[in-house]
What does this fold into?
Amino acid sequence: MRSLEAPFTRRELLLRLGAAGATAAVSRAGHTQPASPQPPADHTIRIAPVSLEIAPGKVIKTTAYNGTVPGPVLRLKEGKPVAINVVNDSGYPNLIHWHGLMIPPVQDGAAEEGSPIIEPGGSLLYMFIPKPAGTRWYHSHAMAMTDLGRSTYSGEFGFLIVDPAGGDPGRYDREVMLAAHHWEGSWVSMQDMRKGPPPDNGLEVMYKAATLGERMLGHGEPIRVRHGQRVLFRLLNASASMGISLALAGHRFTVIALDGNPVPTPATVAVLRLDVAERADVIVEMNNPGVWVFGSTEDDDRSMGMGVVVEYENQTGEPRWAPPPKAGWDYTVFGRGRSASAPDESIHLTFEKIPGGRGGYNRWTINGKSWPDTNPLFTVQQGKRYRLMLDNHSGDEHPVHLHRHSFEITKVGDKATSGVMKDTISLTRYSTAEVDFVADDPGDTFFHCHHQDHMDEGFAGLITYA
Ligand SMILES: [Cu+2]
It folds into this structure.
C-alpha cells in the first residue's frame, strides 16, 4: 500500500509553493492582498457523484468532474500561470494528476511525489505553469485497489490542452476530442471464461460497457462533417486498464502527434493503437461521403459501446462499419530511422507478475520489488540523459508512464529509432523497449504502469534527484 501524506491547508500549500520558488505562486502573490492566502482560481473542478445515461435506460453511477464525462476541456496557454481549485465531493480521499505536464511534484497530483491528498469535503488550489504545449489530460491519481468505482475506473478524467505560446498553426478545419472509457468493471477469473491465462492467474477486471465520447455507439449525437474537411481528432484512452484499437470505416488517420508531442515522421495508418493513458492527434481527410462508424476494431468492444457515428452532410442511412486491414502497431513508423544520441547511463527495469491464484489478486514487481520497496527506484543527476531498458517479463500488456518528463523512444524490440517523444509507452506481452529521458525537471518523479490494478498492486517506483 502506498502511504498517503496528511493534507495541507491551502495556506500551507502556498507557503510550500513560495518556499519552492514556484513562479506561479510568486507571480500571483503580486496580484493578491498580502493578508489573503488564496489567489482567485481561473478554473474550478468539483469532483462529485453523477448518474450518466450512456444509452437509453443505461445509467452509470460514477463520479466525475463538474457533472460531465469527460470533464470540462481545460484549455490553457503554454507558459501562462494557472490556478485551478479542486473541490473533492467524490466521497473518498482524492487528487488530480495533470498528465503530461512538467510541473513541480507538489502540484503534480501524485501522493508518492508528495502532492497533497484532498480529504472528502476538502478543496485544494493547484497552481502551475502549463508546459509543454500539446494534448494533455487530467485524471484522478487516487488508489482504487479492489474498489472499481474509484480513481481511473470512474468518470474522473478530461482533456487538458496546452496551446502553444506562439499560437497554433491549425492546418485543420475543425477539432474533435474523443476519450475512450470502459464501464461496469467486475473482478473475474479469466481462466473460467476462456483459454489463455495460467491456472495460477489472479483476478482481472472485465467490463460490460464502453464509450468513445459521451455516449455508447449509436446513442449519441453523430459527429457531423462536410466533404473536403480536414478534421483534427484528439484521441485519448482514458480506460482504467484496457488497451484499444480504433478505426474510422472508410478513412485513414494521419498521425501528427503522440501523447501530445509532434512526431518527426507523420504517417498514415488505418488502425490506431492506444494503450491506457496514451493520446494521438490525427488528421482525417473527409473524402468518403457516407455515415460511418468510428470505433474499436474489436467486435466485442464495439458492441459494448466503444464507438461514435461520423455523418457527412446530406448523407443518411445506417452507420457502416468495415473491418480495417490487419496491421500491427509500430511506434518506429513515426520516428527517425537513425539511433538516438548515447545516454550517460543505462538502467535495466524488468517487470514481472506474481500470480495471485484463483480468487486472489496479482502482484507486480520492478526488478523483483514492489512499491514501496521501489522508493527510490534509482537516483538521477540533473542534466544527464538516462536510458531505461524496459523488459516486460510477463504475458500482460503494460502502459508504462513517467511523470513530469517526456521520454524519447530509442528502441522497440530490436529496432532502433529516435525522435518520438512520449510520456507513456505500451509494452506488449514479453517485449522489450528502450526510452531515454533527460533529468531536466528536479524533484521526485513517479514511474508506474498506468493500468490502475497493476499500479495499485506494486508496479510503481520513485525516481529521485541527487
Ligand atoms: Cu501493467
About this structure: Residues 10-19 form the longest helix (10 residues). Residues 398, 449, 451, 454, 459 surround copper (II) ion (CB under 6 Å).
